[in-house]
């Protein structure tokens, strides 16, 4: 993997990806953040050596290098998921590349379902901790110790200083920003009523199918990491309705301006 990482990093450096400070993974609810970026260079995932091969969903997937709020950033437009058939090493490979390019901070967004019924769809949740239910670890491979500490500490996987800044920004701008625990499952199917009940019992406030692998690897590499979820549906097992994907996307779109405000104001302070 070290050889692959070196090849990929050198290719991107040759394309002008020089000394970024921040890495951003654009999940659902942050696509329009790119409108706030002075884009200097962009490369399709399919053209990057050793990058996961893009599926149909990610034919437009791009790695973007630009300036946002005066900071150099590498931005993933489109992420990879285990449910698409990727390994956890594939899913997290871009994080390793961003770290090699020079980032010190990783910011992640995603869409999730609200297990905590005090949270409402269209609101945001700051992730303060997580539960990994994806069945394995992105660090579970031979030779991982050559890339970082094998037994990575996860006592504070989400940077408390960055989270405090997010909370202050939300308060200043009148944005509802809950705090909670995110459970990451494989998917792609949604959860059953019994699964939602189980998730509540074990302490999850929201559930999704991403983010946790990337956060684990960010900690493995010594990066500061933070993540925010758009709550797109309410997972009440006693009143569960069939999922309407159109409504979920619409809900993410409604929350997008607030998410962009949070990320822009935070980046300005970093």
Automatic annotation (TrEMBL):
Where does the record place the Nucleoside phosphorylase domain?
Answer: 21-268
GO BP annotation list: nucleoside metabolic process
Where does this protein have coiled-coil stretches? Answer: none
Enumerate the UniProt keywords alphabetically. Answer: Glycosyltransferase, Transferase
**Gene3D superfamilies in alphabetical order:** Nucleoside phosphorylase domain
Q: Which GO terms describe its molecular function?
A: purine-nucleoside phosphorylase activity
Which SUPFAM superfamilies does this entry report, sorted A to Z? Purine and uridine phosphorylases
For this protein, the record's InterPro entries field holds: Nucleoside_phosphorylase_d, Nucleoside_phosphorylase_sf, Purine_phosphorylase
CC terms in the record's Gene Ontology section:
cytoplasm
What EC identifiers does the entry list?
2.4.2.1
Q: Which EC class does it fall in?
A: transferase
> What pathway, per the record?
Purine metabolism; purine nucleoside salvage
Q: Which domain of life is it from?
A: Bacteria
Q: Belongs to which family?
A: Belongs to the PNP/MTAP phosphorylase family.
- What does this chain do? The purine nucleoside phosphorylases catalyze the phosphorolytic breakdown of the N-glycosidic bond in the beta-(deoxy)ribonucleoside molecules, with the formation of the corresponding free purine bases and pentose-1-phosphate.
Among PANTHER family, the record links this protein to:
METHYLTHIOADENOSINE/PURINE NUCLEOSIDE PHOSPHORYLASE, PURINE NUCLEOSIDE PHOSPHORYLASE-RELATED
Q: Which NCBIfam families match?
A: PNPH-PUNA-XAPA (TIGR01697), PRK08202.1 (NF006054)
Q: What is this protein called?
A: Purine nucleoside phosphorylase
């Amino acid at each position: 993997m070290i050889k692959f990482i070196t090849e990929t990093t050198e290719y991107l450096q040759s394309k002008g990806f020089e000394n970024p400070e921040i890495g951003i993974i654009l999940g659902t609810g942050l696509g329009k953040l790119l409108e706030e970026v002075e884009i200097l260079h962009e490369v399709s995932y399919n053209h990057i050596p050793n990058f996961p091969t893009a599926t149909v969903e990610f034919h437009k997937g791009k790695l973007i290098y630009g300036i946002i709020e005066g900071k150099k950033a590498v931005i993933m437009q489109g992420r990879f998921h285990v449910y698409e058939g990727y390994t956890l090493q594939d899913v997290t490979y871009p994080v390793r590349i961003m770290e090699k390019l020079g980032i010190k901070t990783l910011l992640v967004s995603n869409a999730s379902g609200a297990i905590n019924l005090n949270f409402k769809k269209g609101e945001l949740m700051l992730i303060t901790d997580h539960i990994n239910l994806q069945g394995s670890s992105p660090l579970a491979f031979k030779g991982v110790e050559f890339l970082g500490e094998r037994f990575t500490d996860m006592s504070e996987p989400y940077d408390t200083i960055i989270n405090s800044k997010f909370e202050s920004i939300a308060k200043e701008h009148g944005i509802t920003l809950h705090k909670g625990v995110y459970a990451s499952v494989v998917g792609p199917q949604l959860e059953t009523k019994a699964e939602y009940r189980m998730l509540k019992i074990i302490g999850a406030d929201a559930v999704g199918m991403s983010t946790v692998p990337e956060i684990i690897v960010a900690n493995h590499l010594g990066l500061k990491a933070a993540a925010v979820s758009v709550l797109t549906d309410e997972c009440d097992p006693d009143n569960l309705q069939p999922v309407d994907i159109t409504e979920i996307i619409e809900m993410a779109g409604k929350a997008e301006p607030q998410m962009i405000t949070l990320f822009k104001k935070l980046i300005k302070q970093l």
